[in-house]
Design a protein that fits this description.
Elements: H1 6-15, H2 18-21, H3 23-27, H4 32-35, E1 56-57, E2 76-77, H5 96-107, H6 115-127, H7 141-160, H8 164-182, H9 189-204, H10 210-222, H11 224-230, H12 239-248
Antiparallel strand pairs: 1-2
Length: 249
């Protein structure tokens, strides 16, 4: 929503970014969101050698990082982040930020998060609330496009804070969402790949500031994004088409 704290929007985008975790997780396309859908749990998460069954993960598995590896296979149920946890959510206590940092760096072997990135992630986790389980619904292209909006908000916030690493992560978040969309649009994959490559070039140029990124977003919103919304019924976001495609595999 428009009135939402930009820090929360930024954190939500980073939460869904495999690049944040780095290492094997990034190679496998896994993000915080993979285990905690919308910040909740994921009863369907299943990774060979890491899960004992759906909805479980061995967080001390050396597959992700030798720092946390304990040499035992001891998966646990993936927690719902909307519930009370072992770490205080009190913003004044600031206990959540170092906890998230240790997860990224030690559990997954990711790069050291900047203070601005940790602030955003902690703000998002603190904002996660409970919801009625009966309100669950399938994801649509609008959800993915809103995630790109979140990442754009994050890029602006990180630019304001002078955090170049945070900007690059926000761009990585946008590119990841474009990749997820491409999986469901056969006829649009070339266009989505081109859009992602343009973002990559922007991220790699240290001289490319926020105005360049805003121009990309404006062009995307007026062009490709409108086409994606228009063609959603012919994509794998359509449940019937998705079921037929899965049945053929």
């Amino acid at each position: 929503m428009a009135s939402e704290d930009p820090l929360v929007s930024s954190g939500r985008a980073l939460f869904g970014t495999p690049t944040l975790l780095g290492g094997q997780a990034a190679k496998a396309g896994l993000s915080c969101e993979s285990c905690h859908i919308n910040g909740r749990g994921n009863p369907h998460f299943l990774l060979s050698g890491v899960s004992a069954g759906p909805g479980t993960a061995d967080v001390t598995n050396s597959f992700f990082s030798a720092a946390r590896g304990n040499g035992r296979f001891d998966p646990v149920a993936i927690p719902d982040l909307a519930g009370p946890g072992k770490v205080s959510r009190d913003a004044q206590a600031k206990a959540l930020e170092p906890f998230i940092r240790n997860l990224v760096v030690e559990e997954f072997g990711g790069e050291e998060p900047t203070p601005a990135v940790l602030d955003a992630l902690a703000a998002y986790v603190r904002a996660i609330g409970r919801c009625d389980p009966d309100t669950q619904r399938g994801r649509n292209v609008g959800d993915q496009l809103r995630s790109i909006d979140d990442a754009m908000t994050g890029a602006a916030l990180m630019t304001e804070r002078g955090d170049r690493a945070g900007v690059r992560l926000s761009i990585a978040a946008m590119r990841h969402q474009l990749g997820l969309i491409a999986e469901r649009y056969t006829e649009r994959r070339a266009d989505l790949l081109s859009a992602s490559r343009a973002l990559q070039m922007i991220g790699e140029r240290d001289t490319a500031g926020l105005p360049v990124l805003l121009r990309w977003k404006d062009d995307f919103d007026k062009g490709l994004a409108q086409g994606l919304r228009r063609d959603e019924g012919r994509s794998l976001y359509d449940r019937a088409r998705l079921q037929r495609a899965l049945a053929r595999q």
